[in-house]
Amino acid sequence: MLPVDLTTAKTHIVIPARFKSTRLPGKPLLSIHGKPMILWVAEKAQAAHFADDMCIATDDERIAQVCTDAGFEVVMTSSEHVSGTDRLAEVAALKGWAEHDIIVNMQGDEPLVPPLLLEQVKTLLVADSDSVMATLCEPIDDYETFMRPSVVKVVSQHSESRQRALYFSRAPIPCERDVVLANERDKQPPKNAYRHLGLYAYRVSLLQQFVHWPQTPLEVLESLEQLRVLENGGHIAIAAAACQLPAGVDTQEDLDRLNAMSLADFQNPAES
Description:
Elements: E1 11-17, E2 31-32, E3 35-36, H1 37-46, E4 53-58, H2 61-69, E5 74-76, H3 84-95, E6 102-105, H4 115-127, E7 133-139, H5 143-147, E8 153-158, E9 163-169, H6 177-181, E10 194-203, H7 204-210, H8 217-222, H9 226-231, E11 236-240, H10 252-260, H11 263-267
Parallel strand pairs: 1-4, 1-6, 4-5, 7-11
Antiparallel strand pairs: 2-3, 6-10, 7-10, 8-9, 8-10
Function: Activates KDO (a required 8-carbon sugar) for incorporation into bacterial lipopolysaccharide in Gram-negative bacteria.
Pfam family, one: CTP_transf_3
Family: Belongs to the KdsB family.
C-alpha cells in the first residue's frame, strides 16, 4: 500500500497548454468573449478552493506571456514531451513537490469545467490509497457516440468499496453481442457503456515512475497515455462524474459555439 501522509500532502492544479494543435493552431490563445481561452481555464482553476496552488505548464513564450501578464504562475517545460502526463512530471520535478502530493490535471481547452469535478477526482484518489491515478466517466446514451473513435470509452471493475478502470479504448467497448447482431435502426449502446472524461488526478510518485517507462504497445496503438499506467500494473480509480462536463474546444465550430453563448451563460453554465 502506498503511504499517504494526509497531514502534509498538498494538492496542485496544473494546466498543460501547447500552442501547436492540428485542428486549431494557437488554441490556448484563441478568444472567447474577448479573452484568451487559457485565462478562462485558469480562472476556473482559481475557483477550486480545495487546491493549495495552481500553475500553467507550457512550452510556448506567447502563452507564458499572456498568463504571466494576467497574474498567473507559469512553468516553462520542454517541447519534446509525447504526452501531457510527461509534461506534468517535469513540472513536479521542477517544483520539487513531495511524492505523496496530488496533481490535478486540468485541460487547457475546457473552459467550462465545473470546479466540483476537479475536487471529485482529487477526493477519489485520496480515498483509494492503492491507486496511483484517478479519473472520471459519464454514461453514453446514444449509439452514434458509442461508435465514434474520437470518444474514448472505458470499462471498469466494481466492488463494494471502489471502482477501478480495466481498459480504455477508442473502440466501442464493452461489446454486447445482441446489439452487434441487431438491425442498425435497433442498435443501442450497452447499459454499462461509459465515456471517459479527460480529468485526472495523479500522485507525484506515479509521475516520477511514468517518465522512465517507455511508451507501451497499447498506448501507442490507441494513442491513450493512461494505458501506459495500466500496462505497468498501476491502478486507476474511476467514478461517474458528479455533474455534466460541458464540451471543450476541439474545432472552430466548438469555439464559435462558446462565443455564441451569452457572457452570463458562459460564466455560469447550468452544469456547474
